[in-house]
Amino acid sequence: MSDAGLVDRLAGLPRLADIPRTELEWLVARGALDTQEAGTILGAKGRRIEQMWIVISGCVAVRVDRGAGPRLVTEWHVGEVCGMLPFSRMKGPPGDNYLEERTEFLALEERHFPALIRDCPVFTAYTVHTMLDRARNFNTSALQDEKMVSLGKLAAGLAHELNNPASATVRGAKLLRSGLADAAAAARALRASGCGDETLDVIERVWQATLAAPVGPDLDPLQRADREDMIAEWLDRHGLDEVDADSLVDTAVTVEALDTVAEVASDTALEAAVRWIAAECATHALADDIERSAARIYDLVGAVKQFTYMDNLAGPESVAVEPGLRDTIRILTAKVRAKSATVTVDVAPDLPLVYATGGELNQVWMNLIDNALDAIGDGGRVDVTARAELDRVVVRVIDDGPGIPAEMISSVFDPFFTTKPPGQGTGLGLDIAQRLVRRYHGDVMVDSRPGRTVFTVTLRSGHA
């Protein structure tokens, strides 16, 4: 194809309709027309691209793997420019630039960029707008991907933490159903025993005393075994079934209280009274267990609501730092427990508020604390502190892990840089954390040596 014919083709592309013909002629004179088949990789991930491509037909796409498999980030169609652009500081693409179909393009070497900027101002402006759009689309995509990763961590931690109280609630409800039946049967037996009102009053007082101060949780295994033996011996002396000892041991009932019942009740009434007290104590204990489990679920849901700021989507505002830090650690409890880690939070009294979006700030805490837990070994330690320093609120996340190698520390905030195994890290967490903090005129810094790594977040205190 002649140069004039190629210029005509470029001029006929809607996206290049406003580019002066003289500039298109300049591009054609210095560029090289090329055609490649579908699947061809024009620029490999991480390797510097040294050409700009103007798509004449077909499509160039970029897919990025951020830990959950390759995902389409962007596409360039007819009339669009891609690859290396003037003024771009791109060190290498985040994913392979490949052809989705047979594609024809004009390739311009990077060495022509200085002359391009001087001789083709309209086309240069077009590439600058393209570069800004590309950066905006990439940042939006990266932020959404990291939010999904954070959401996955949140969901995994929440599911783990909810499993125990939910299982306890279901188990307790099933046991309570049979316990209520046992209590009803014991009550019928007590009524049938012919007890008088005075005897029933004594039995009632003893039962109330057992509910006043449950002792089971305060007993160690040896103490519990001794108490169970003592109650079993009392039951045996009175010719009663020792199986009730297990129900009575976790209550505040004493042998003296049981003696009080034995003094006023006949043998038949005593057996019915003990069974009734044991059954009622068991059902109340089950009800207490269900209440505690439900309260734990309620607290976890509340922590998630606060962590995500579900009830407040208005945008930046003055927010307190401490609740977000504590909610984040509560969400990560399962991971803390799995590593037998020690995590502390030390927040100065009367810490000033900071101006930020609460949900985004909590995403920063999630990234930093989760990374610290990843860095430490079993039984390791993570300390989180928050202090007011001049007009700033300074939060430090400190871990006693092996540290970041000196040759890597300058790259920890780079997009896609990660020291974690493939599939376990996106390399976006620290980059996004830094960008989120800088959005609110703050910064994130790191200092690391073996046994002590400190990520420091500074935020402006007060209002917008």
Write the layout of secondary structure elements.
Blueprint: H1 3-11, H2 21-30, E1 32-36, E2 41-43, E3 51-57, E4 60-65, E5 70-76, E6 81-83, E7 96-99, E8 103-109, H3 113-119, H4 121-192, H5 197-212, H6 221-237, H7 245-248, H8 255-264, H9 267-308, E9 317-319, H10 321-331, H11 333-338, E10 342-347, E11 354-356, H12 358-375, E12 381-389, E13 392-399, H13 429-439, E14 443-449, E15 452-460
Parallel strand pairs: 10-12
Antiparallel strand pairs: 1-8, 2-7, 3-6, 3-8, 4-5, 4-7, 9-11, 12-13, 13-15, 14-15
Helix pairs in contact: 1-2, 4-9, 5-8, 5-9, 9-10, 10-12, 12-13
Folded structure, characterized:
- The protein has helices spanning 3-11, 21-30, 113-119, 121-192, 197-212, 221-237, 245-248, 255-264, 267-308, 321-331, 333-338, 358-375, 429-439, and strands at 32-36, 41-43, 51-57, 60-65, 70-76, 81-83, 96-99, 103-109, 317-319, 342-347, 354-356, 381-389, 392-399, 443-449, 452-460.
- With 464 residues, it is α+β, with helices and mostly antiparallel strands.
- The protein starts with a helix and ends with a strand.
- Helix 5 runs parallel beside helix 9 (267-308).
- The protein is built from 13 helices and 15 strands.
- 32% of the residues are buried.
- The strands form 4 sheets. A 5-stranded mixed beta sheet has the order 10-12-13-15-14, covered by helices on one side. It has a 4-stranded antiparallel beta sheet with strand order 1-8-3-6.
